[in-house]
Write a structure and sequence with these properties.
By secondary structure, this protein is α/β, with parallel strands linked by helices. The protein is built from 4 helices and 6 strands; from the N terminus they run E-H-E-H-E-E-E-H-E-H. A hairpin with a 2-residue loop joins strand 4 and strand 5. Strands 2-1-3-6 form a 4-stranded parallel beta sheet, sandwiched between helices.
């Protein structure tokens, strides 16, 4: 598991990069372990600011986004990805109610 993107890494999107934002460390570790076993390079964070920076600078091919994070709104993170023209595939994970999931879609 990689904690954060390193300076000087390519800005060109690479095939198997997974960015995970989740406030449950055990979920992040599990997703990371599974993804690394499938050949992904993985960055896991609980911090929305680190997530946003990694999404812009590390260029993940897949993003696993928990919509329910303390102190931030997952919908706002999605809006930020859209504003940055993020091309990653998005996987939403959340215990949010159906209305929130509808808005996210």
């Amino acid at each position: 598991m990689v904690d954060a993107p390193r300076a000087g890494q390519s800005d060109v999107p690479l095939g198997n990069r997974l960015l995970v934002v989740d406030d449950e460390p055990s979920i992040g570790r599990l997703v990371s372990k599974l993804a690394e076993g499938m050949g992904f390079e993985v960055v896991v964070t609980e911090d929305p600011a680190v997530f946003a920076k990694a999404a812009r600078e590390w260029h993940p091919s897949v993003i696993n986004l928990d919509l329910k994070l303390p102190g931030t709104d997952g919908i706002e993170l999605l809006r930020g990805l859209a504003a940055d023209n993020c091309l990653a595939q998005i996987v939403l994970t959340s215990a949010a109610d159906d209305k929130v999931l509808e808005v996210a879609q």
